[in-house]
Amino acid sequence: MKQLFTLLLLVLVGGSTMAQMAHPGKLSGVLSDSLTAAPIGYANAVLKNGDKLISGTAADGEGKFELANLPLGSYTLELTFLGYRPKKLPITLTAEQPVLQLGKVPLNSDSKLLAAVEVTAMKALVEDKGDKLVYNAEKDASNAGGNAADVLRKVPTLTVDLDGNVQMRGNSNIKVLVNGKPSGMMARNLAEALRQMPADNIKSVEVITSPGARYDAEGSAGVINIITKKGLQGFNGSTNVTTGNLNRYLGTNLNYRKKKLGISLSASGYQYRNKYSMESTRTNLVNGEPVSVFEQTTWADNTGFGGNGEMSIDYDPDSTSRINFSANVWGGDFPNDNTILNRLHDANGNLLQNFRSERSYTNPYGNGQLDLGYTKTFKPEQELSILSQYSRMPDNYEYEVGNYTSGEELTFRQQSKNLSRNKEYTLQTDYTHPFKLNGRRDTTSLKLEVGAKAIRRDIGSEFRVLQSLDGVSPMEPDPSQSNDFSYFQRVYSGYTSLHLSTKSKWNIKAGARLEHTDISGDFESTNTRMSNQYTNLIPSISVSKGIKEHTLKASYTQRIQRPLIWYLNPWVDASDTLNLRTGNPYLDPELNHAVELGHSMSTDKGLNINTALYWRYTDNAIEYLSQVDENGVSVLSPQNVAQRKIYGLNLNLSGQLNKSWNMSGGSDLRYLDVESPARNLSNSGLVWSMNLNTTYKLPRDYSIQAYGNYSSGWLNLQSSNSGWHWYGFAAKREFWDKKASVTLGVNNPFNRSMKQTGQRNDPTFAYESRSFNFNRSVRLSFEWRFGQMNTNGGKRSKKINNDDKGGR
User: Fold this and answer.
1) Which of 226, 321, 498, 540 could form a disulfide with 557 if both were Cys (CB 3.0 to 4.6 A apart)?
2) DSSP letters of 219-262?
3) CA distance 655 to 602
4) How far lies 503's CA from each of 131, 500, 553, in Å?
5) How many domains does one find in the chain?
6) Spatial contact of 585 and 562, defined as CB atoms under 8 Å apart
7) What is the rounded CA–CA span in Å between residue 358 and residue 560?
């Protein structure tokens, strides 16, 4: 596999060198305003031969543009920019004069176009891009001052519960990317990461339900790509300050780009509050008969904090190449201190145990990541990239728990530390090559994508437990709960994909991805070893046909879900001494089949309707299962025990009622059937959700918004929970020539807390819970944007996309 990877890289690099030798032509110039002679930065320069595209680029901030590696011949140069009349120039490149310097090229302003721009309507909140749905979060005023979980609650096809757990069409095995690349923060714990990412940083959210071969095969449900607000061109920046009863945030970013160099710096700090309470009853069973009843009452009120910073530098040696480097760090501490009242009765109601647990639980975490990449563009859509990445993520869990009698006598103490770390190395290369196939009645474009990738992950987990069984004597090490665990994962992959599109609006994309995974683990303290390896061939195909305003789509793909590091860690969380939680280092991957039939319609009046029928089947599915032993202790761990089937219908609508008022909404209806013959367990039922979002622009740069969603709940193999709702209102005022804004937002103003009930059943127990999440919030956010804000149509830096890590 390593030899194949090297061979592919040499072939691609060699091909790029030959291509440059075969095309010696070069064209350059400087675009300027015909009246003021001021340079026109970031205008588009496109070279054509008839209708055939030869090359294209965007001018830099000084109006300079350059097209290299051009074949000799006669062409037409088309120059365009918003607010200026298009200009066409004849161009001839010969062997005697392969390099042509145009000097200054004036463009005439178009006053009619400028006037038209001033009265354009609002951009739709939800757009169907064919292969993905896009939610334009920056156009949603109510997001100001919130967090990423608030944003995802409004995204079509997604469901977010009160704890921030995300599902896509009933499946929580989702790959979450940030700007097209993996985020260690998202991979570590998705629900917590969403609460920590400020909504003000998010530009849009892309939902990809049927990812193609270019994406890593990981992620049974699909891919979510969170696009953050990028700095534009010139020098610019922004500052955001948010205060509220649950969320506080301070962040800034600076961006500078001139000619060939771009630098971006950002930093932020945040604080968030998590308050909840829960009551639960677990009836322990033997042969179906109750033998004891265990009751718990828990309450907690915690405030966490964190921060992040990033620096990125990109350099363009010429108009077709880019070298990019970035470094980012983030970290924080998420405490989960709580008080638990425990009561154990026998089957006749006699009290057996009555004690209080005081738990101090902390989770200091962090991540550092370096990216280095090179991208070479030969002509539009023909591109070679070589990318590398290194990251290191310490992720530690520590707790101390003490049990007290009703008379405040300390009877048990335990202290546990889990030092976990993850080092990851990635090397990736991708190549895209376009073809034009001209026929008598149709023009067909064909794009080939090939690539290879290698990932090495080195993970360590060291856990130690000290305890005092009587609560009085000094705490001593417990060797049975201590170990050192080393885990190594290697993933080698290669893919190829073909994308065929025609002027008659046929689009066909087919591909395959081959992935080989090699795993080894070592419990060093007990000298116990494990190993596993598997190879997966993942096909994918999608076909769509456009008919006037309508598009019909059909797709099939397979996806795999490797056991995540968080599933595998064998550390036992015993902070609740009668409810233990642990990982399973012996898990196998699950395989998912996905079929989707879709229809979308987009009218000239701005109405967008997207409908999809889908089917998902997962074998060897990973489910978290609880078992209760003869001592009444519950152990929760992930197991490969289930088959999961989902049949669903998804509908989303968005549109503008007039130029000032837009509205979007959607619903998802699915039938879930999950069973485990080995455990004699099954669960099935109908689950649905719906959402609605509306914004109205008022005079004098005011806008108001209302939003809400409802979900009927979730089902798993052992468990189910009741529905929940979420709603809010926001008002925004822009000023200082729209460079500053103040937003006031409220969530759930008429409910102090949201109640949710849940059940979990097994032959060994029956469990019921009632939880209360305190999520009524108010926040005030101020944002100021400064500097030159010019759009850039040029190249975008590429980074590694390890979208096979996912969230917990």
Assistant:
1) 540
2) -SSEEEEEEEPPP-BEEEEEEEEEEESSEEEEEEEEEEEETTEE
3) 9
4) 18, 11, 17
5) 2
6) no
7) 41
Which residues fall within 8 angstroms of residue 363, CB to CB, at 6 or more apart?
Answer: 333, 334, 335, 336, 395, 396, 397, 398
Q: How far apart are CA 357 and CA 167, in angstroms?
A: 33
Residues 6+ apart with CB under 8 A from 194: 147, 148, 149, 152, 160, 164, 166
Q: Assess if residue 620 is contained within a domain.
A: yes
Which CATH number belongs to the domain containing residue 53 in this structure? 2.60.40.10
Last residue of one domain, picked from the residues 117, 150, 165:
117
Residues 444 and 310 in one domain: yes
| Total-model pTM | 0.71
Do 540 and 508 touch, CB atoms closer than 8 A? no
* Mean pLDDT along residues 724-728: 91
pLDDT-derived band at 797, boundaries 50, 70, 90: low
Give the number of other Cβ atoms within 10 Å of residue 3's Cβ.
7
Non-local (6+) Cβ contacts of 86 within 8 A are: 78, 79, 80
- Cα–Cα separations (whole angstroms), residue 792 to 63, 737, 796: 12, 21, 9
Q: At residue 608, does pLDDT exceed 90? A: no
- When pLDDT is cut at 50, 70 and 90, the band that residue 23 belongs to is low
Query: Which residue type does 502 have?
Result: T
Provide the pLDDT for residue 243: 94
**Integer Cα distance of 245 and 469 in angstroms:** 40
Strand bridging mode 702-711 / 681-698: antiparallel
Contact between 603 and 539 (Cβ < 8 Å): no
493 with 216: CB under 8 angstroms?
yes
pLDDT tens track for 268-307: 898 989 999 999 999 999 888 999 999 999 999 999 888 8
At 679 the pLDDT is 86
**pLDDT band at residue 20, thresholds of 50, 70 and 90?**
very low
Strand order in the sheet with 52-58: 52-58, 44-49, 73-80, 87-93
* Nearest Cα to Cα of residue 487 among 339, 606, 586, 400: 586
Question: Cα separation of 465 and 19, whole Å?
Answer: 62
Nearest residue to 242 (alpha-carbon basis) of 311, 153, 145, 326: 145
Query: Does 179 or 505 have the greater pLDDT score?
Result: 505
How many Cα neighbours within 13 Å face the side chain of 685?
Answer: 15
Domain range for residue 34?
A: 2-117
Q: Give the contacts of 675 (CB within 8 A, at least 6 positions apart).
A: 642, 643, 681, 682, 683, 684, 717
Q: Which pLDDT score, from 0 to 100, does residue 187 have?
A: 57
Residue 767 is predicted with a pLDDT of: 94
Helices (H) and strands (E) in the chain, counts: 6, 45
